[in-house]
Amino acid sequence: MIIDGKTIAGGIIAELKNKPKPEKFLAVVLVGEEPSMMSFIRQKEKIAKIIGVDFRLNKFPEEVKNDELKESVREIAGIPDCGGLVLQLPLPAQINRDEIIEIIPAEKDVDNLTGRAPVSAPAVGVVETVIENCKLKIENLRVAVVGLGLLVGGPVSKWLEGKCAGLQTLNSSGNLEVLKQADLVVSGVGFAGLIKPDTLKDGAVVIDFGYDFKDGKTSGDFDTSGIRNSELPARNASHSDAGGKIRNLTYTPTPGGTGPILVAKLFENFYKLNR
């Protein structure tokens, strides 16, 4: 089955529209204009307009100096009417990411990059929502998290500790054979086609946060090229392994999977921080 992220996100956004709108604005700091970052910026601007949130994009050139960016972020974060601050990642090599993150006040950290915010990282919200949507019991799941980055793998693996039946974490160069034991695979590497259907067990669920441009199109970490699907909205996905056995798989597509839910969860966090 393909998990329709747009529909799930639409439900979250509809709930937000029925809640009192925050009076403060959401600030976004963007350095450079990398294509994948611009795609997420456009999604955020679109949702902000739909729900009526004051969205303010602060753009800086790719060559901005570290101290200059630090001072600018400090000024933005210090504005009383700023109710949330998003630092769009990744940052250029000359920027000390950790120094910039430390400037973000916990009460305005909608991505919980500091680890001190009173909200979960949006990626954690996505995983929790998909698990609920698939009607899975987290305590029964053996989970593998591929990639341990700041936005996805790190916070998701930390959240899963003690909640699931078993947790395996690995980076992109790790032995992907361990995925054959996982009921749920969460990937946030950003390497197109890294995970093949043959490396998964029958009935596995894949939550794919990976985002990469390959052959002129956007692709995720999970290679869906060999998967056959019926029509939307409830598509059953099947794959034949080397032995010809048909195995059922459930996954988030790219695009249209985790991306829309991530953005919706970010705005949900913004509302929570401004209640």
TrEMBL record:
Chain ranges of the Tetrahydrofolate dehydrogenase/cyclohydrolase catalytic domain: 3-111
Amino-acid biosynthesis as UniProt keyword: yes
GO CC annotations on file: cytosol
PANTHER family to which the protein is assigned, alphabetical: C-1-TETRAHYDROFOLATE SYNTHASE, CYTOPLASMIC-RELATED (PTHR48099), METHENYL TETRAHYDROFOLATE CYCLOHYDROLASE _ NADP-DEPENDENT METHYLENE H4F DEHYDROGENASE (PTHR48099:SF6)
Keyword Amino-acid biosynthesis assigned: yes
Stated name of the protein: Methenyltetrahydrofolate cyclohydrolase
Endpoints of the signal sequence: none
Domain Tetrahydrofolate dehydrogenase/cyclohydrolase NAD(P)-binding residues, every copy: 125-228
Annotated region described as Disordered, given as residue ranges: 224-245
GO molecular function: methenyltetrahydrofolate cyclohydrolase activity; methylenetetrahydrofolate dehydrogenase (NADP+) activity
Keywords per UniProt: Amino-acid biosynthesis, Methionine biosynthesis, One-carbon metabolism, Purine biosynthesis
GO-annotated biological processes: methionine biosynthetic process; purine nucleotide biosynthetic process; tetrahydrofolate interconversion
